[in-house]
Each structure stands twice: as C-alpha cells, then as structure tokens.
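Researcher: Please generate the 3D structure of the following complex. Treat every line as part of one assembly.
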Amino acid sequence: MQEADFDVGAEIAALTAGHARAGAVASFVGLVRDSDHAAEHGGSGEDHGTPATINAMTLEHYPGMTEQALEDIVSEARQRWNLLDVTVIHRVGRLLPGERIVLVAVASAHRGEAFAACEFVMDYLKTRAPFWKKEETPQGGRWVDAREADDQAASRWSQA
Amino acid sequence: MQEADFDVGAEIAALTAGHARAGAVASFVGLVRDSDHAAEHGGSGEDHGTPATINAMTLEHYPGMTEQALEDIVSEARQRWNLLDVTVIHRVGRLLPGERIVLVAVASAHRGEAFAACEFVMDYLKTRAPFWKKEETPQGGRWVDAREADDQAASRWSQA
Amino acid sequence: MPIKILYFASLRETLGLGQESLELNATIDSVATLKNHLAARGEPWTALAKMKNLRAAINQRVVNADNAIADGDEVAFFPPVTGG
Amino acid sequence: MPIKILYFASLRETLGLGQESLELNATIDSVATLKNHLAARGEPWTALAKMKNLRAAINQRVVNADNAIADGDEVAFFPPVTGG
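Model: Done. Output below.
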C-alpha cells in the first residue's frame, strides 16, 4: 500500500533482476476509468442506465489487515504455481481518472504459470483484500458496489 | 520487430494514454533465460538431460511476413475481445541472458478481456509468427525445437 | 480488556464512526451476537443488521458470524471489498 | 517470371542458402511438387523431404502442401517457429 504512484517498468525489471531462470513476466495494471463502474456493466443498480462521469476515486483500506491479506494471496499463488517472484502494489487515497491503482507482476520460468498466477492474484485481491472505492461524480460521492463478476472470477480458482 | 531494447513502462503508459475508458492493462514480457529450453522441460530430446548453459540467443525472422503475421494475430484478438489498444514488440538479432525478447500489452475496460487477449496473442505469436531462436551454448550453436506445449496452448483458443 | 471495533467505507460513513471500544459480556460472545447488540442501539446502527453481505474480521482475518470473540480482539465490520 | 524461394533458420543453414530464383514448369505447380523437385537435387536438399513439420508460406502467408504456386510468387520453407 502506498499513496505514491509506481514505475511499472522499474518494478518489472526489478522482479527478474536476480532470477536468471526467469523467462516470463506477466503483469497487470489497473487504472481509474473516467466513467461509472456499475453503468458500464449494464448495472447492478437500475438507476445507473447511462455512464456517469467520474471526477476522482478515493481508495480506503484497512491498515494492517491489507498487508496480511496480500501476503496470504501471494503465498497461495506460490503454492499453486512454480513462481520466481511476485510484486503487488496497491495505491490508497485520492486518485484521478487515468491514474494507476494497482500493479501485479509475476515472474516464472514459463508463461503459462506467470499468466495464471497473475490473474489469480488479481481475482483474489478484488474479492479478499480490504480496499474500498468511493467515486466522486458530478452527482456526488458514491461507494462502488462489489461486482458479482468478481466473485465469479475468484471462484474459478477453487473449482480447478 | 526491432534490434533495440524497449521500455516496458513507457509502452504500457502509451497504450492507455488516449483511452479514458481503459481500466485494465495486461502485459507479458519474455526474457532470454540462462539455461536450455528443452532440458528444463524434461526434454523433447533425450540428449538434454541436464540444463545447458546459454551464452546468448540469436533471433532470426522472416522480414515482411513477420509484420503481416503479427497484424493478423492482433486483428484476430480484437475480433474476439473488446480491446482498446494492443502493443506487440519483438526483438531480433543477438540477445544475452536476462535481455527482453518480446512485449505484448493489451488495454481494455476490464481485466478479464485484457488477460485473455494478452495470453491469446502470446500463444499465437509462439506458434504462428515467423521467428526462430538459436542458442549459443558452451557445446556450440543449437536451434531451439518447437515445443508441443506451445501448440497445445494455441489450440485451446480454437476449442473455446 | 475491551475489544476494539472498526468500521470501514460506506458503513463507517453511515455510522459516523470509524472505531470504538466495547466491554464483552455473557451475551456478546460472537460476531453475530455483537452485531445484534450494536444494531439494537437503533438508528443508524440498524444498518449493521440491514446491510446485505456485511463482512466481519477478527484480528484482521475474515470470519463467519458464528466466530467467537475474546477479550482484547480487534473486530471489524465492512461491506464487500472493491479494490484492484 | 521466376518464383523467389526463401529458406530460414536451421533449414537455411543446412542448405547453405538463404534464397534463390526458379522458373516454374508444368511439373512444378504446388508447394508439394516444388518441394519434391528441390529434394531431388540430392544432398543437402533431401533435408526438405526429411524434415518433419516443414512449414511453407506463399507470399508471406502459411499454406498447405497442395497449395498452387504461380509465376512471381514468393515461396518460403522453414521449420516450426520458436519466437516469443
């Protein structure tokens, strides 16, 4: 967790610096979009028929538990796949559209494991790490609703 | 195609610069590993029981066809998923262990599409783009054998 | 030794409170009984009973409603997470 | 107008040749008949017949062995690709 932005290229380079067997780095960057989450999806709420402009996004978290949750997620990924290194950075505080929110980068010898682990960490982060988003729109502040699609994405990994 | 290295962070940032709806960038970086490909996999050839050190890797390609093949792959990815932008950079020439070979980065509104498209492009690139790797080892030069695992990875996308 | 209770996100705003201390007693011994005790305070605390998918953690691990609470625990209530 | 034939990677090294020109005739009209014609030159050209999974492209698109070849085409032979 940090308020500051991060350098994606530097983080990815650092991830493989000490690992001569690293042949693959899969990574994900999540960004603040300029329009309303629920509306884009056809809406979990019927009152979001048209995309609302987002002026800013504030990310709240649960200090202490967040670190523990991210460690648990990375640890589970390392048990499931043969990984060389994993980086997770999640920003908190107020962010503007286009700003980076989250980086997950996974180094492995082979790409299949790197891709799977990276997507796994993101899916679990979205459903298990204590972060909450509040959007500022021209109509006022609004807490983002949890998406059923995120629960479904995370549940794939327990069926496998 | 280029001989020069690329800046992963700058490429990812450029990918989303003009896309306010971009909420997700999935990317992949492939690197030259320090040991023999076939040996790491238990070997398609029985004579590769122990990993051979790799001193360097030379990437040959088919100028003209390469560009066309990469365009076709990106075009197919755009038909399958709702993508905002795609970047593919593949280096050619002589590279040392730890050097970057390939970058695929995909921007989308949502992470599921970004991840799927990025992995699809890599799987197709590995089986359809005319690049060939030759390893320099202490025992001499050796053309890398195509991996059955790569064909299997690519064939997933036609079954889906 | 009292327990510490934390509230996050929309729940924190609804309650107008981020954290408080509470002494346990014989009738408050689990997440469910603590939640009922708090909701019984009336508005705005009924939000704890009304909120669908309310999540709870004890000592920074997510738990179920029937989980026991002990003196000194840190208990947190929050809505489903939405980071990433 | 002759066709242009390109060889890549291990095949290029085995043949000691990266490209050549060839005039088509009535018996050389497809990828398969071209391959047979070239392999019939003897060593090292038999590699074209022996190599398992030999790939071919016409005008920079991958094709099958029964694909027709026309005057002026660019035909390429190469082993399975290994980039990425």
